[in-house]
């Protein structure tokens, strides 16, 4: 009888430990990968981006020097604006980066970091941009990071499957997409903007499946002002 009770108690302890471990892994995965349950949408219209009130996810990208860059919302020293774009090969992305040059200095002055997440590999982050765009953002402190592994796009819930036709068009144009998120994983990010406060919570999110429509500099400034005020 006592042996039976001892066995039952031990079983309960093992079950409890196993449950704790599973919950810990689930929590860890959700923090790192965001929408891990729906990592890549079939189309841009089917994405499920994170939104206000969601915890920002952890992810790893690369700098222009091919160095690892870890984004961890649990240890932020300053609020952050994340701006995801498809790549330097995209004319609408170039236009958007050029337009935002009017807002970046003011946002930086608020004590907010702005991180641009590109689908291009690290060595193409600047060189793939149009020369006019490079000239316009030069000296403004743009931090452009490579999300060629699509980890950030997946974590933020903005990744979708690039069509074969899109890949064909890029090859036909001669775009250098080798090892980009599009060529490596067949994934593209929907252009998006997320504002993250110092506690790691998303306070503002914008993602439009129509890549031709982008957030305006004034709207970005408003989102930035909101998290600056909260601090």
Explain how this protein is built.
The protein is α/β, with parallel strands linked by helices and 231 residues long. Helices cover 39% and strands 18% of the residues. Helix 2 (91-100) packs parallel to helix 4. It is globular. The model is unreliable at 1-7 and 12-36 (pLDDT under 50).
Write the layout of secondary structure elements.
Layout: H1 2-33, E1 59-62, E2 68-71, E3 80-85, H2 91-100, H3 104-109, E4 113-118, H4 131-137, E5 143-146, H5 151-156, E6 159-161, H6 164-173, H7 181-185, E7 187-189, E8 192-196, E9 202-207, H8 217-230
Parallel strand pairs: 3-4, 4-5
Antiparallel strand pairs: 1-2, 3-8, 6-7, 8-9
Helix pairs in contact: 2-4
What would a concise description of this structure say?
The protein starts with a helix and ends with a helix. The protein is an alpha/beta fold and 231 residues long.
